[in-house]
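Fold this sequence, please.
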Amino acid sequence: MDRTAGEGRLRPYVFKSLTEHERLVALARFPWILRAWSWFLLFAVGAGPSVLMIALYLSGLLNMGAGLVCLAVSVVGLGAFLLLEVYMQTTEFAVTSARVLTKRGLIARETAEIPLHAIEKIALHQSILARILGFGRIVITGSGGAILASHPADKPLVLRQLLARARQEDR
């Protein structure tokens, strides 16, 4: 959970969309395991085959087929890393003193929000593994059936408590 202004990274959309009398209550963060997976894809899947290709080349054992396979695996690993990082950097789930909002997208932007007073139900979705690793999804149902779901969020119980507190203060 990030309750600060997002130092060291691009300024989140939520800060740009706050109204004059609105304050940020919580900005959900992606869990550490998803960030670790992203870097694993870069180093093990992206860079690993490249290092193998260089070692085979230097030893004189590199043939065209092995080189192409190593190159293809490296490109796939790098691509997967980039896609996951772009997703994590361009996806937000935030609770403010007046509403809950989500934002997705780099070039094309998709946003949705539910005012705190219109929330009917707050659900927490966690698998056994997600519970062990400390992440989950918050799903909010608003009046009229509108549904907002968070991305996989770190410390979802804290996020739900902050959301409940913001709802109480809004009343």
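Strands lie at 24-27, 92-96, 99-104, 110-115, 119-125, 135-142, 147-149, 153-154. Residues 46 and 78 are 5 Å apart (CA to CA).
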